[in-house]
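Table S2 (continued). Query chain:
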Amino acid sequence: MTIRAAVLWEQRVPLSVEDVELAPPGRGEVLVEVKAAGVCHSDLHPACGDWPVRTPLVLGHEGSGVVRELGAGVTRVAVDDHVVFCWAPACGTCPSCRAGRPVLCDRLDRTTYRNRLPSGETRLRARGQAIGSFLSTACFADHAVVAEEGLVVVPREVGFEALAALGCAVLTGVGAVLNAARVPEGACVAVIGVGGVGLNVVQGASIAGCERIIAVDRSPAALEFATTFGATDCAGNSSAIRELTAGRGADYVFDTVGTPATLSEALASVRKGGTVVLTGLSRLDAEASIPMYPFVMQEKRLIGSLYGSGQPAADVPRLVSLHLEGKLKLQELAARIYPLDGINDALAALASNAGARGVVRL
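Corresponding output:
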C-alpha cells in the first residue's frame, strides 16, 4: 500500500514528506493506522546528526493508533484495537527479559537499534530503495507495520493526542521515579530540565507523594508549565537547589537533559546519601568528568534509567488508569499540534526548547 511518511534521506537535511510503499505485515507483525505521534529528542538527535544512523529512515517512535490488519500468528492485539506504540519490542526469552528487565532485551541491539523490525526486515520502500524503520516503529507516517510486541492495547475512551507521548516521554519520566529510583513518600526531588520527559518526572514525583519538587530550567515558560504538573518550586539554574534546601541538597536529582554540564550540576545538587538519576540521552561522543570522592565519603549514587526501567506492557495500562483517575495529565502534554507536513516545524520547535510535547496529528 502507498502511505504518506516523513523520510530522513540525509542527516542535517529537512525531512521529506512523500509517498512511501509499505509492504503488508509479516508473521508476528501488525498494520497500524497512526492517529497521533509525539515529537521527541530521540527523533531530533538522528535528524540533526547527533547520533550516527544509516539513512534513508522514517523517524517517529512514540505514538498511538488503531490496528487495521494482522500478520500470521498475531495473538496480542485484534483488528480495531486502540494501541500505544512501544519502541522496545522485547523478545521475552533472553536473559534480560527472563530477569524482568525487557527494556534491556538483547534483541534490541541487533534489530531495533539498527532501525529494523525484530524480524530483521523493513517493510518500507521509496525511490527504489529500502527505508529503515526508526526504533522498529517509524510512526511519522499515516500507517506503520510493527511487531505485535511493540504495541500495548489501551481503552478507547482516551484520545489519541493524549496517548501520543505515553509510549515514551510519560513512561520514561514517571518510570524513572517509580521504577528506577523508587522515590519514597515525603522525599525532596529536583528535576533538571522540564521538557517532555522532565514534566513527567515531576508528575511521577507528585504521584509518589514527594513533599518538595524543584523544577530547574532556563525557560520561564517551561517552569510555569511545570507548576501545573506538580512542581512546588522553580529555578532558572541548579545552584538554587541547595539554596532551597538550606544547603543540604535534594534527596533525588533527575537529569533529563543529559549533558556533561547538567550531570555535574546534578551531582553537586544532591545531598549526602542521595541519588542522581540520569534519563537524558546525550550525543554518543559526550563524556563527563565527575569527582569520585563524594561517591565514597558522601555515599552519593548515580544510576541510569532507560525507558522508565520497567515493563512497558504492564506500565502503560497502569499509567492510563492513573490518567482516568485524574492523577496523571496526558492531554496537557500536547502543547503544539502539527500536521504531518509540519514535521520540520515540530522538530525546530523542539530544538528551540519550546517545552512540553509537539504532537503530529495524522
